[in-house]
Amino acid sequence: MAPYFSALYLEGLLLGMGLFAAPGPKDTLVIRQGVSRGPVWGVVAICIVADVLLIALGITGLGSILERRPTLVALLLLSGAAYLLWFGAQRLLACLRDQSMPDTHGGNSQRGLLRTAVVLGFANPYAWLDTVVLIGSIGAAKPASQQALFAAGAMTASLIWFVVLALGC
Question: What is the DSSP letter of 148?
C-alpha cells in the first residue's frame, strides 16, 4: 500500500509543482508583499485556500465537464490571456508611475490587499485553468479510490509553493 500511496501523492505533487512554478498574478502579489515587507501571510493563506478549493472542484467533476466543452475551455483560455495582459499592463503602468510598491500596512489597504488576493485566487482564469481544468480533469479521470491522494499531492504543492515564495522574499 505504501508504494501505491507514494506514487499517487507524488504524481499530484509533481504536477502541481510543475504548474504552480509558472509565475502568475497570485505569485506576483506574494512576491510584491514579501519584497516590500508588507503583510504576506494572509495573502499566502488565501492563495492556498483558493487552490485547494479549485482543485477539489476540478477533481469532483467540474474539470471533466469543462474538458468536454472545448469551446468553453477556449473561451477560458482567451479570457485568461486577456486577463494576464491587462494585469501585466497594470503592473507596468504602476512601475512607470513609481507606484509598484504601494503602502499596504494601513487598515483599509490591508483589507484591499486581501480582497485583491481573493479576486486573484478565485476570479483569475489562469488559476482555474491550472487547478480546475488541468489538475481537476487528470484527477477526475482516476478511479474514485485514487482521487483523494492525487488531490492531496497537488494541494500540498500549492502549500509548499506559496510558503517557499513568501519565505524567499
Answer: H
Q: Tell me if the pTM is above 0.90.
A: no
For the stretch 1-21, pLDDT in tens is 556 668 999 999 999 999 999
pLDDT of residue 32: 87
- The residue whose grid cell reads 488576493 is 117
Query: Residues with Cβ < 8 Å from 162, sequence gap 6 or more?
Result: 26, 30, 44, 47, 48
> What number of helices (H) and strands (E) belong to the chain?
9, 0
DSSP state of 101: S
Q: Which of 44, 34, 37, 33 is nearest to 162 (CA)?
A: 44
pLDDT digits (tens, 9 = 90+) for 43-101: 999 999 999 999 999 999 876 676 678 887 788 778 777 877 777 787 778 777 776 54
List b or e across 112-132, with b for residues whose CB sees 16 or more CB atoms inside 10 angstroms.
ebbebbeebbeebbbbbbbbb
Burial of residue 4 (number of CB atoms within 10 Å: 0-12, 13-18, 19+): exposed
Angle (nearest 5°) at CA 51 between 50 and 53: 65
Side chain identity at 17, as an amino acid letter? M
Please name which of 122, 121, 134 lies closest in space to residue 162, comparing C-alpha atoms. Answer: 121
